[in-house]
Amino acid sequence: MSRNNSRSSQSQGQDNLAAASLRPAHLLALQAFDVAVRLGSFKEAARVLNVSASAVSHRIRNLEAHLGVALFQRTHRAVRPTVAGEKLAAATGRAFALLARAESAIEAAGKRRLRLKVLPQFASAWLIPRLSSFLTQHSQIDLAIETSNRNVDFDTETFDAGISFGAGKAEGVVAHRLMDVRTVPVTAPSLARRLKLRTTADLDRAVLIHVTTFPAAWPLWFRHAGEAEPPSTRTISVDSFVAALQAAERGAGVALALEPFIAESERRGTIRRLLPVGHMTGSYWLVHPPGAQRNRALQTFKRWLLAELAKQD
Q: Where among 106, 130, 154 does a domain terminate?
C-alpha cells in the first residue's frame, strides 16, 4: 500500500471515530438534554449543570435543529420527551452512566470506594445500625450510601450496587435475595387501648397511614386478611415506610410496618403489633451490574452482608 493510500485510510478511520464525530457543542447539548429528561425541567437541569435556564434551552434547541426533530413537548409547568426524545434519552442515559462508572472506577482504584443506593427502610432499620462492624473490619473501604424510595437503575445511575425491593429477581443484573418482607399493622400502645383495636373490623375506628410509593399496600393486606377495606376510614399519607412507622409510634394512626424491621420498636414498647395477619409483599435484593463482579470492594461488602444476615437465621 502506498504512503498516500495509508494516510488516506488512516484519515478516513479518524473521520469515522465516534468521539471525533461529536463537537463540544453537541456533547454539551446532549448533556443538557439528558439531565432535562431525567428532571423533567429545563430550570432544574440548569441548576444541576450550574448554567442559566436559557443556556439549557438554547443547547437543546440547537440539538433539535441539528437532528431535525422535536425532542420535547413543552408546557407551562414542565417538559416531556417526545417519542424521538425518549429514544435518544435511552441512549444518552446508558452512555453517560457508562462513562461516569468508568471514571468512578478509575478514580476509586486506589481508594476502594463503594457507592450504594439503598431503600430507606433497609438503610435505617438494618444497614446503618451495623455499619460500624463493617467499617471496623474493612477500614480500607470507603462507603458512599444514598437512600431513595426508587430502586437503582444502572442504565442511568452510577452506583456500584444497590439494595432493591421486588417480588422477584430483576432482569439484567446480578441479584442476591437478602430477606423476605411482610406487612403487619402496628400502632402506639396508647392508641390501641383508647380505640380498643383488637380485630380487623376495629380498624374502621382508626386513621390508616398510607405510603404513597406503595398505594396498594393496605388493599392487599385487607384482601389477604379476608376483609373489605373500610370505605369511610380516615387516612393520612407519607412517602415511605420509615415515615409511616414513625407516625404510628407517635399515635397518629395505624401503619403497615415491614417485618422484620419492627423488632427494635417492639422491644422499646413504642409500637404494638395489632393482629397476627401478615402479608408477604416481596424481598430485598442486593443487585449490581454483571461487570461489577470484578469490584473487590463490592465482593467484600457482599460477603460481610450475607454473613450478617446469616446470624439472624
A: 106
